[in-house]
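pasting for the record
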Amino acid sequence: MGWSFPWASSFGSDFNYDFQVAYSEEQRQSGAGEYNFRPFDFSSGADLGNQRPFIEWAATTGTDWATYTEESPGISAFALDEGIGYHTYSAYARGLDGLWGMYQRLDRAPLGRNEKRAPDDPLNFFRRHDEYDRQ
């Protein structure tokens, strides 16, 4: 249809901190922060960075686990009307699933995301096609 709209990046600004999807070193050290409008305990996942799947997961984005976890996912939308900016929408955590096509398909599978498959498996619901056991 030829539609277009401007995209903007929060890179190099305080935006991600203002919307509680980036965390200061002080917050990470203390283990306390806020994400998705509720308290977030950083310490619960701190040891995950020593596990191979998490090291590899972070590496797919070109970084290490500590850097990978400096921010959390979120999306926001704004409208500009007569020179005034309005915050019209934000979504975090599971609210972003509609943007990630694979989750929409997994949710419709017989076992859904199969999140209860193996609690001790760090990546307990999503596997690439070559990571399933052969039978």
